[in-house]
Design brief:
Elements: H1 3-21, H2 27-40, E1 45-55, E2 58-70, E3 74-79, H3 86-98, E4 103-108, E5 118-122
Length: about 120
């Protein structure tokens, strides 16, 4: 599957999760349930994936952690906040660059309509 097909399925799964749980829960709850939903749909799902920082051929494993990576291609960064801030977009873009991925979804579940909480971020696409 290509990134666009994967992100479409992620959006659909996010809609289902949001309809069932609603807004306002902890980010960790949405992460667990969304990962479960995506795995049930046959996707390869990895949670809390370390994204190391490489500097002068030295790998620093104390880098960052992506909430979810789907099929090794799409990074999902989950939030449950009142409002997405510019730092949230930069965080996901950093993960995309360091992880050498082209597409990510920033999903804020703390909204009344989930379509207002989903942002697609690209890296050299």
């Amino acid at each position: 599957m290509q990134e666009n097909e994967i992100t479409g399925a992620i959006v659909d799964a996010s809609l289902k999760v949001h309809r069932a749980l609603g807004p306002g829960l902890l980010e960790s709850v949405y992460e667990e349930v969304l990962a479960y939903e995506l795995a049930n749909r046959g996707f390869e799902v990895h949670r809390q994936v370390a994204i190391p920082v490489v500097y002068e051929d030295v790998v620093f494993d104390k880098g960052f952690r992506a909430d979810i990576i789907v099929n090794g291609k799409v990074i999902i960064e989950l939030k449950s906040v009142e409002e997405l801030k510019p730092v949230h977009y930069k965080q996901l873009l950093t993960y995309l660059k360091l992880g050498d991925k082209r597409v990510g979804l920033l999903i804020n579940f703390n909204v009344n309509l989930i379509k207002h909480g989903i942002k697609r971020i690209v890296n050299n696409l």
